[in-house]
Design goal:
Helix content: 55-70%
Number of strands: 2
Strand content: 5-15%
Number of helices: 3
Distance between the termini: 51 Å
Strand order of the largest sheet: 1-2
Shape: flat
Low-confidence stretches: none
Length: 71
C-alpha cells in the first residue's frame, strides 16, 4: 500500500509539474519519461506522451560522434 501510494503520488507530481510548465511557457513541448525506473511511473501519468529508457545515453552517444567528427 505504501509503495503504491508513493508511485501514484510521484505520477501526480509529475503531471502537475508538466501542467504548470505548459501554462507558463510560451511554446508547446513534448514531455517524455526517461530512465529505466520511469517504466513504473509512465503508465500512471496523463501528461507524458512517451517512454524512452536510454535517452540520456543516446544524447551522449550523439555528442561523442560529433566530437570525433569535429562538428
Amino acid at each position: 500500500a505504501i509503495s503504491s501510494g508513493l508511485v501514484n503520488g510521484l505520477a501526480a507530481m509529475i503531471d502537475g509539474m508538466v501542467e504548470r510548465y505548459r501554462r507558463a511557457l510560451p511554446f508547446e513541448f513534448t514531455a517524455v519519461a526517461t530512465g529505466g525506473a520511469a517504466a513504473v511511473i509512465f503508465p500512471m501519468t496523463t501528461q507524458l506522451v512517451d517512454f524512452i529508457p536510454v535517452l540520456t545515453l543516446e544524447g551522449v552517444h550523439i555528442a561523442c560522434q560529433r566530437a570525433v567528427r569535429g562538428g
